[in-house]
Design a protein that fits this description.
Distance between the termini: 18 Å
Strand content: 15-25%
Number of strands: 19
Largest sheet: 5 strands, parallel
Shape: globular
CATH architecture of the largest domain: Alpha-Beta Complex
CATH class of the largest domain: Alpha Beta
Radius of gyration: 25 Å
Number of helices: 20
Length: about 575
């Protein structure tokens, strides 16, 4: 697929030069910092050395005081508390965090009745996303009088009213965009509330859960050090939920990764051992190894399996849970491949669909648990705002994914009269509608997208941070570059562009269709850099003929036979 290259504007030379001199680093690196709004020595120190002291006061969040008072009252009166969360990574990590914290710090934990606190994950197929009537009925039947809902609930107006009628109180901890009306809960913690002045509104659901236990600890004189063991869960959620890696998220992710590498909980350690990962854990490992496995539990079986893994205190049970989740993840991958192939064939067989500016596909037999993944896969092949729908409980339900800069949530909201329910973010959303409305929705959504999307959004973009010469890639340069991590939206791993380069003469195809090269300047070549270009074997003949080209790449470490070296990961290349 042809891609457009976009080079970020170069930062102010005077600021860049001053910062480079003060920090003793390359001007290219200083330019990267200024692009990230890091312009002074003190700001750079804060960027490279995050501190937990930089976390915001949790009581700045609207309703936090009410939430803590209600939890304290429940504890004092020995009420039963149910921790309720969604079945994805964000929801299950949030449940594991809040449940295990209160299980540990609840003063009634030594009572004979050890069921003072429990957790609940809705069944993806029987109950659907978010708070369910079934979950509330479970709480009532088992004498729970307080439910702490995580990563869901901000639009559950009718569900909370139903709970109130049954004398069950709710504390909602969500991060999704609220509707015009808030549910009548005891406390609604959501930094995206229009009346919430919390300094950072891009927390994930698990992040809001962390602020809840931080506030409880602050109020009840529990040392902050007691919260370190929960930072790993927050880091996993931040990475997997693709929230911006800035401000509090960057700090929480930084220390969460530190916890994972130095003192991983048994369930996370089991995942990495089963995946045979022995290297330092970064955001990449969380996104591509941990996240999919935790998600697979809720997609294919039950999210309770993921929570059980994350809260496990026993090495053997953690290993067993990890093995079971690995099997589930393999099932998920097979479904993903089959359904993506089917969906692509539907587009290929329908000329009109292929010319649309949106993709909305429905098939009653597709597995509900993987429609979000399939939507993402479709965008990789057919770059359009995409919605994949299947049938569940007599209705069409599915997931939406978007392309860069296009707000798919707003587009779905414009079709609200055709929907039963919907929710989500700018780039990802979920929705449910009547089967008879599917065709009308396909048409309306296409009309909305066509009227609002700009042409440039329909071509995938590679955003380039800076131009770089190969000779400037030194061990010192990379040591500083590594400290830009943890990466994520808002602080992506930098991409560089280098012009006038050729292969040294050893290009070869490896794997299915990957290029392995040794790159050097076309003129004045002194040294070469090993490079890998995944999925780009179509360039083999041109590279073999030593044609001059321009490459966009990330710099990474490659470990082979116990030796670590720098390697260029080529994202795209064009002949000059």
């Amino acid at each position: 697929m042809e891609k457009r290259w976009s080079i970020k504007p170069k930062a102010d030379d005077k600021i860049t030069e001053r910062l480079a001199e003060e920090l003793g680093i390359d001007k290219v690196l200083a330019n990267l910092l200024v692009q990230r709004e890091v312009k002074t020595f003190d700001e750079a120190k804060k960027f490279f050395r995050p501190s937990l002291d930089d976390l915001h006061d949790p009581f700045l969040m609207k309703d936090m005081d009410k939430a803590i008072v209600r939890i304290e009252t429940a504890i004092k009166n020995k009420e039963k508390i149910l921790v309720y969360g969604d079945y994805d990574v964000d929801g299950t990590t949030a449940v594991a965090l809040v449940y295990s914290f209160f299980k540990k710090h609840h003063p009634n934990k030594e009572d004979e009745n050890s069921s003072f606190i429990d957790f609940y994950i809705p069944d993806r197929y029987a109950e659907g996303y978010g708070i369910s009537f079934t979950g509330i009925d479970f709480a009532k039947e088992n004498n729970f009088t307080l439910i702490i809902a995580l990563d869901c609930g901000i639009k559950a107006i009718d569900k909370i009213a139903y709970a109130n009628e049954r004398n069950i109180d709710f504390i909602i901890c969500d991060h999704h965009r609220p509707g015009d009306e808030l549910p009548e809960a005891v406390a609604v913690l959501d930094p995206k509330r229009s009346d919430c002045t919390y300094p950072f509104d891009e927390l994930c659901g698990c992040g809001v859960g962390f602020k809840l236990i931080q506030a409880f600890s602050q109020k009840n004189n529990i040392p902050f050090e007691e919260l370190y063991e929960y930072l790993d869960l927050t880091a996993i959620s931040i990475a997997s939920d693709l929230v911006p890696a800035v401000d509090e998220n960057r700090t929480l992710s930084y220390f969460g990764l530190k916890q994972i590498n130095e003192k991983p909980r048994k369930g996370i350690k089991a995942i990495f051992e089963l995946a045979n990962v022995k290297r330092e854990i970064t955001v990449n490992e969380l996104v591509f190894i941990v996240g999919p496995r935790i998600n697979a539990a809720g997609r294919i079986k039950t999210g309770r399996d993921a929570v059980d893994l994350l809260i496990s205190d026993c090495v053997d049970s953690a290993k067993t849970s990890g093995q079971n989740i690995n099997i589930t993840n393999a099932e998920r991958r097979a479904l993903d491949v089959d359904i993506t192939a089917h969906a692509l064939s539907m587009i290929e067989e329908d000329a009109e669909m292929g010319s649309r500016k949106s993709t909305v596909l429905y098939h009653p037999d597709w597995h509900k648990g993987v429609v979000g993944i399939v939507a993402s896969r479709m965008i990789e092949k057919h770059y359009r705002p995409t919605i994949i729908l299947t049938e569940s409980n007599g209705k069409a339900t599915g997931s939406a994914r978007s392309v860069k800069d296009f707000d798919v949530y707003n587009a779905i909201e414009a079709c609200a009269d055709l929907l039963e329910q919907f929710g989500g973010h700018k780039y990802a959303a979920g929705l449910t509608l009547k089967l008879e409305n599917v065709e009308a929705f396909q048409q309306r959504f296409e009309e909305v997208v066509s009227a609002t999307i700009e042409e440039y959004m329909l071509v995938p973009e590679i955003e380039i941070d800076a131009e770089l010469e190969l000779k400037n890639i030194t061990p010192k340069f990379f040591r500083v570059l590594k400290q830009f991590a943890p990466f994520g939206p808002g602080n992506m791993s930098p991409l560089f562009i280098t012009k006038n380069i050729i292969d040294k003469g050893y290009v070869r195809i490896v794997g299915a269709n990957h290029l392995k090269m040794d790159l050097q300047p076309a003129q004045n070549a002194r040294a070469s850099f090993p490079a890998i270009a995944f999925g780009q074997a179509n360039h083999f003949d041109d590279v073999l003929r030593r044609k001059i080209f321009t490459a966009v790449y990330a710099i990474e470490e490659n470990e082979y036979n116990g030796t670590t070296s720098l390697q260029l990961n080529i994202k795209d290349m064009k002949l000059e």
